[in-house]
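User: Protein folding is very new to me. Would you mind checking the protein record under this note? It all follows right here:
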Amino acid sequence: MADDRLDLEFDYARRGPFTALDAMQIRLTAHLPDDPVGICTAAQGLVIQPADAAAQGIPEARIAEKDIRPAADLVAALTALDPSPLHLARTPDKRVVGTCRHFATLACAFLRARGIPARARCGFGMYFLEDHGVDHWITEYRDTESGRWVRVDTEHLGTAYIPRPDDLAADEYLTGGEAWIQYRRGLADGHRFGVAGTAHAWGPARSAATPSGTSPHCASARCCRGTSGAG
């Protein structure tokens, strides 16, 4: 469940260092859909996972795009490849290379550009590996009618991992803080949380390292790809 107490401390419709876009980039968002999920879907069509990029023959030098952090720099890299407006999905070779963090952060930036309260959350998808929480980033937006935070797996919209990637259930995704609380209360096995495709990045320390749900990025292609076992 999203922690509404955070709302007291921050205006989530305000753009920050990692979600601010420049004036030219804002103009490129003019034709994004009006609905939040549609905006997230547009962001999905602009990013490609490193493993998928390699499979598409994208030059190895471009894989370093996965280390870009600010949304403005992501959009700059994207528009250098194709200057089209941002509501238009790119062909795989014209997408910016990134992980689940980039899908989530770019969607958050687009939502905020429209004045919609949004945040990128880091934590654990509970739907990639049975009985395990896999390191993953999603997007949240504040629904104006219900007042609740809606969790969207931006990267996996339209896939079959979960019935409703556009509105994740409370037990389908845990932020780092939520996973840590469950572990401390004896409600979860901390050793079942970590980074897919690694042997070392599992255990209670993994959830403790992201108490606010804002870790550096998902390090595993396996947990984020739409073409392999865990996502």
Observations:
- Residues 4-224 form a domain with the C8orf32 fold fold (CATH 3.10.620).
- The longest helix spans residues 100-113.
- Residues 12 and 166 are 19 Å apart (CA to CA).
- The first strand starts at residue 47 and ends at 48.
